[in-house]
Amino acid sequence: MTSRFYTNSIDVNQGTALLEEGEAHHLLHVMRLKMGEEVTLFDGKGNAWRGRITKTDRRRAELELLDQITVATKSSREIVLAVAPPKGDRFRWLVEKVTELGINRLIPLKTERTVVDPGAGKMDKLKQTMISACKQCGRNEFLAFESQRSWEVCLEEYHQTHHLLIAHPNGAELRDIFVKLEPSQSLLIGVGPEGGFTEEEIDQALQAQASLVSLGDSILRTETAAISLSAAVMLQ
Ligand code: SAM
Fold this sequence. Notes:
six-stranded mixed β-sheet; binds S-adenosylmethionine; 7 helices; alpha/beta
């Protein structure tokens, strides 16, 4: 497999692409690729091309597009993860893993017991983590990052279009919920903070027709629960 690079600088009509900053640094100084070598380019929207390096300097690489190898398609099913952000590096780890697993959209949740408020700077760093995960795992469409929002707003926004699957230690077994769902059904996975969802938040979810799902007898950390349920849904 050729090395993969993300670019938002593709001119399909001219058949050219440009890499700058971090992506150029990766190509030129980490991978040490030279003129004439082939790479894979993707645009974060689901498209990918085979490209050949035509010009380099210390900070930029120009490429010629050889052929398009993947064309963006619109999936009818969307899997959203709404999760109370865990502390420190555990959120970075979560973002990396759910990108690999193919979750479409990430919502940092504000619940009553949420203690982490990832500011814009932190979210920008997490976007870099997400892009690196896309490069590594062969994903051409980005994990979409939403702004942080309250549990109430999240339920309101998604309950009509997505089935709500809320991770809760007292929930039902996953297989009992899966058998009732259409394979094409869009889902919103909800995972609470370290202190858990409050009873009121669980009631709000149930009023929005949510299913509560158990992930076993152990109390998992937020990121473990989020990754486990994401993997189960993606493999369903
Ligand atoms: N004492 C809290 C409670 O009872 O909810 C534990 C919170 S747990 C550390 C953080 C979140 O992970 C929970 O809000 C829930 O969404 C999810 N979670 C953890 N263990 C789980 C399990 N065994 N089954 C389902 N969800 C779980």
